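Q: My labmate handed me this sequence with no annotations at all. I'd like to see what the chain might look like in three dimensions before we decide whether it's worth expressing. Could you predict it?
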Amino acid sequence: MKIQFKTILASSVLFLLFICWKSDRKRLTIYSIGDSTMCNVSTEDNYPGRGWMQMMSLYFDDQTIINNMAASGRSSKSFRDEGKWAKVIAQVQPGDYVFIQFGHNDEKKDTLRHTDAETTFRQNIINYVNEVRAKNAQPVLFTSITRRAFDKNGKLIDTHGKYVTVIRDLAPELHVPLVDLNKLTSDMVQKLGPDKSKKLYMYVEPGVTSRLPNGRKDNTHLCIYGATKVAGLAAQSLKALDLTGLSSHIK
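A: Here is what I predict for the chain of 251 residues:
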């Protein structure tokens, strides 16, 4: 009877120590800003689309708070002009991380979103980085995910051009960690090829969801499977960067 009591007592003490250790662990807070390829997508009516950052919690521990503030249709210009950035940076605290991915909509020709890759786009990204650092937080740059665009020979076509190379060049210049999602996703899509790569994107048959009664063939936006795969690639790359206060939270 005494042995059983001691066993129960020891187990209880160990459990309490574990709870105390867990509660004392430093929490990680991540904010993310970007476009529809990254943002949270409504799952109502069986909608199969997802932003890759929407799936990132699968790869982080329960001590991580992810605030995905990316918004559909926004560029590095319109995200700020519409006041969305002001709401994000007001919340950022010292030690937080801010993930930054723009480019898809900066390419658009309308004046509300368009930026020139080597001038206004470049400066917008620099401004985001500097403002994050002013809050004693850590920015991380991400290149835009690839579109599923193949030529007649089955070779993936680059549709982002200088919007990707600018980010690649800025990262070492500003001493900011870089996750080259464009390369990672391009390699994955090219390896799968023109047919199998469709399973990553929004290829939806009619009748699957009331929001897309006629279905959709979308080579830009990700489905649940695709977003999960891309989030996994991002998490692996972040883990390899061994970032203080972040990498230890990745599963």
